[in-house]
Amino acid sequence: MSTSADSFARIAPQLEGQAIELPSWAFGNSGTRFKVFGSPGTARTVEEKVADAATVHRFTGLAPSVALHIPWDLVDDFGALRRHAEDLGVSLGTINSNTFQDDDYKLGALTHTDPKIRQKAIDHHFECLDVMDATGSRDLKIWLAEGSNYPGQADLRGRQDRLAESLATIYDRVGPEQRLVLEYKFFEPAFYHTDVPDWGTSYAQVSALGERAVVCLDTGHHAPGTNIEFVVMQLLRLGKLGSFDFNSRFYADDDLIVGAADPFQLFRILFEVIRGGGYGPANPDGTSEVAFMLDQCHNIEQKIPGQIRSVLNVQEMTARALLVDRDALLAAQEAGDVLGAHEVFMDAFSTDVRADLAAWRESRGLPAHPMRAYAGSGHQAELETTRVGGTQMSWT
Ligand code: LRH
Ligand code: MN
Ligand code: MN
């Protein structure tokens, strides 16, 4: 089934202004613990990663900002990096802290029993807040690699209490226009327990902090079979869904292209975002309360087209989710028409919006087919010949 011109025209205005933030680390080399494959043309500096993100935006109009990870993306002058980004037509977005690559944090960072180590981790977050002041970023995103491997190894309750205290100290420094975003993940690198394993724990922790503390939902961070759209609905209902880290998974935290493993799941998630009022600009400056971000790595495929594919997948599923006839759905639900309601839902999912989206892009001065346009642009070959010398950046 493809869209009738009428129904696409109805939803098209809502596609305007859709923004999906790209992770700087998607443009570095990455791999598994077995091998990191280098690929020609990969960014050698933070400035080149930002330039690659800007290229994705140029071809799609969908990715106006890029997230940084500190210290991976540490530079001397963040004001200059901000100007570099703006010159290329993008802005610097979320600042991600990193307490997972320092020997001192082997047994914990914000939860550590040693106050000196806790303070070191808190100071790192203060440094990230300073970076945000220079970059103009709104969100400080915290994902903690903390937990334990063996029953009895750690005092679960004591760690949760220390976490609350450390987060409160960080939150005190979060500016009035800024947010603290706490990401959860149910396993890895710790295997017995994780200190922020699920949305409930993240919700409990951020609720204790205040209004500007919210939850980040990474689609790869749940147990198999989890109904992620239910989590989306609940966090939106509670006013605490701050952002998404979008990616796909088959087995663990695979960080594959969003919408590749389970497009229907992406559709269901986006439907709940729209249904819950989390889609579209919520603030006077046009920013959305719920930030859409990618958190992916491209281990064997090319990185720039990998990111182009990803934002297009989100756009396509957003269009299909917007097409759900909500009035008909509600009527069927209230009439107890189980199969009728399901059919309304599936009709939208089954709608092929690709031709309409291509025409719509063209009408806005964008390539109808961004993947093909990038492939035919010669940009990749140019990167491969000009980015010689220096060291390609890698994920860590
Ligand atoms: C943890 C995570 C988190 C990190 C990123 C690199 O698995 O999802 O968001 O910052 O990966
Ligand atoms: Mn993530
Ligand atoms: Mn992850």
UniProtKB/TrEMBL annotation:
Matches recorded under Gene3D superfamilies: Divalent-metal-dependent TIM barrel enzymes
InterPro entries found in the cross-reference section: L-rhamnose_isomerase, Rhamnose_iso-rel, Xyl_isomerase-like_sf
Any GO molecular function: isomerase activity
This protein's record includes keyword Manganese: yes
Domain of life: Bacteria
Keyword Cytoplasm belongs to the record: no
Entry keywords, A to Z: Isomerase, Manganese, Metal-binding
Transmembrane residue ranges: none
Protein name from the UniProt record: L-rhamnose isomerase
Species, as recorded: Nocardioides lentus
